[in-house]
Amino acid sequence: MNAHVHHNEKDKQELNKFGYAQELMRSMGGFSNFAISFSIISILTGAVSLYGHGLKYGGPGMMGFGWPLVALFVMFVAACLAELASAIPTAGALYHWAAILKSKRWGWYTAWINLVGQIGIVAGIDYSVAIFADPLLASAFGYTSTITTTLIVFAVILLSHGIFNHIGIKMVARLNDFSAWYHIAIVAVLVVTLAFFSKGGLNSVDYLFKVGETFSDKPYMFAFLIGLLQAQWTFTGFDASAHTIEETINPRVRAPWGIFTSVAYSFVIGFIMLAFVTLSIKDAGAAAGADNSFIYVISQALGNTFGNVILWLVTAAMWFCGLSSITSFSRMMYAFSRDKGMPFSGQWAQISKKFRTPAKAIWLAVILSFLLAFIDYIIKSVNPDTSYTTIAFLTAVSVVGLYLAYGIPILLKLLAVSQGKFQKKHLGPWHLGKYSNFIAVIALLWIVFICIIMVIPPNEMAGYAVLGMLILLIIMDFAYYKKHFPGPQAALNKSMEEILRRERELEKGSSSGPGVTHRA
Amino acid sequence: MGLTIGIVLIAVACLFAVWIVRLAGKSIREFDESKHESFLGK
After folding, report:
1. CA-to-CA distance for A332 and A433, rounded, in angstroms?
2. Which residues in chain A are closer than 8 Å to B24, comparing Cβ atoms?
3. Which residue among A192, A226, A343, A483 is least packed, with the fewest CB closer than 10 Å?
4. A25 and A356 in contact (C-beta within 8 Å)?
5. How confident is the model at residue A493 (pLDDT cuts 50, 70, 90)?
6. CA distance A7 to A174
7. Rounded to whole angstroms, how far apart are CA atoms A128 and A42?
8. pTM of whole model > 0.80?
9. In whole angstroms, what is the distance from residue B34 CA to residue A187 CA?
10. CB pairs below 8 Å between A and B: how many?
11. Digit-coded pLDDT (tens) for A338-384
């Protein structure tokens, strides 16, 4: 028996202990697991599309101070999630952890809050791609770019991501691997070019740490906090390594590394990129006021031709980011549905017998993400004078939703440890030892802080959206799920014979019909 | 002053990342499967 087969069997047995059959194809290696989170964090998506937001509110100092400050605290959060992923390696991740650390209702709320964040992140990423791609397509095909054409491009991009994800994890994993190297290569080209060919040379390093300059109407400290959205949104989605844990070989070691190192590498590589771009700024006020600040700075420093080339390359990187985010989102919904946590769960928990992917969950992810942006489109069509931007709205929703969902299992693990429920013997191979609780407390403080910052004006719409969804969740919970959600605990009642039968069915490619989908 | 604080902040973030990598690496090396028990929440 070779090492690969040995690991697969061991990983399958570990999953079976939680009452789940190995339904998804386990084929991802360590780099692929890292690459999916690295691609969703995507420094070429978050840091670039919100570069103008950061510059407008925090000035150049946002890149010098804001980025490392956010990265430092996000690494606390990532370390806590990595530890949990190693201990409880299931695709439900955040919600499954919350459910078994405390109760199924905690898990149910965590799942829905995570789902809201996932909708926001997919919509935010693909809307960013559309914002970049639509003007490029408009100039190529001779039409005028409007919010309607942007929405259409957004829909087409979502559709392409749905198709690739439907076709299979192997192809998506290969594209993610390529995406990770692609991101690094683009940043390297950009940095080297700016370092040697920037017109008029670079600003002094002091400029990167210049504080007190804001291009908004807010006092600087307040504006700086609002500007943190740029970095904070970039550092989201690293839970993807946990959501794809049932498709990863040796997941108790590889997934936690994927979670933590994707954040750490994004911090370093992202900082280098932002530093060189910011040091190339010729006129910060004009850049902050430009439609696309990042491209404006590049064009000023290297000329319009190079600016256009970078625009195309960055747009492609964003497309990869959206592709990975649909993978993560669909796995989360698949896992939640197999525990019957959503309306029509039987549908979303189905696995395509041909591709071994949660096909219906993938298309649901596409539709929900489109709807969020479409609602925003309707609001803006009715009231064109709205003060917030679509991208700030979508990104703030995703930050709050995701970080709340990150925080709940971290808090519940702390409580479970204090009650003696979660003990040292339950930790996986990847853990933080005696520093675990200290790191968790710091992570939680950061999450509380950042969730408040993300919903204060001018992002109050995101706060209303999250609040509205929470109210809806409470209604759903009391109306139905309080009594009818079996939770992941119910899976533990499955017999090993039942689990193995399910695996044999999938091996033969004879299932996926509604009648044979998970029965808790 | 801003430059110094900025460099210290970046150094702290990098050192934290390295510390976590060493901490987790050590825990993996010393992990004893026979003492592990899956947390099922029962």
Report:
1. 28
2. 79, 82, 256-257, 260, 430-432
3. A483
4. yes
5. confident
6. 21
7. 12
8. yes
9. 45
10. 95
11. 999 999 999 999 998 888 899 999 999 999 999 988 888 888 788 77
